[in-house]
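SAMPLE LOG
Freezer: B-3
Tube label: C17
Construct: single chain, 297 aa
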Amino acid sequence: MSGCWLCGSAESYEVMPSTVSGEVKSEDFKISDSHYGRTARIVECRSCGFRYADPIPAPDLTGMYESLADSEYDEGSEGRIGPFRKILTRCLSLKPGIKDALDIGASTGLLCMAARELGINAVGVEPSGWAVDIAKGRHGVDVLQGIFPHPALEGRGFDLITLVDVIEHVPDPVGLLKDAGKALRPGGFIVVVTPNVRSIAARLMGRRWWHYRLAHICYFDRRTMGKALGLAGLKVRLVEDYVWSFTIGYVAERLGRYLPVGGLVRLVARTGIGRWFFDIKVPVNLKDSDIYYAERT
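STRUCTURE (predicted):
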């Protein structure tokens, strides 16, 4: 058993046993994965309340992400870029004049695209070769393959650094935040988006909560995220709900994981008006994912 990734305490207890059987493959780490409740063994620190995987589900997590391809995520790009635009607009309201941004865990470069639309020079870092090829080839944005810190970025400073649905995937979240903080220019700030394990939705859904999945190896609430940022020399300036943007078809398909509506969804999707209806994008705020805007202390 390992110590707590936040406070180092060796005292923890199991909150969820592992439900993993068989070989773990890179496809198990897809962003679009819908095997809710399939996780590594999750423990909670008795000292600080942080939840993390013990042990992690694969010894080479970076290798898993390097070979990852996720066509379903790519198909939903139009809906996914909307929340990124809103985050960046909020960032510009908090700090007018942002010129340079870094997106850690950039995937296919959607946030970098949104930044470009707003006149921000953005570079991303992403381990998946498949995602980097799409970011560069189709979207024409600068995304480097690898993990952060990246040698090509050594010595560069940024006004804004974003980690959107990234921190819950890494085994050293405080170390990553510290490295990101070092790359901030004076007056710059970091944006972290991550699920809230103490949210009402998480408590009600229990093991079937949609954020309990194999790729998520640690879970924060507002208190433990505040602690992690503090340990990294960062201070929370603002916390907001993260509002997703999904098509009605996507929402209906995901509801099929919980309710017997699959047959009805497929029937409606066969009609012209059904396909039109399912393509409509709607905001989804489940109040179980938070946006943290933090500054260097």
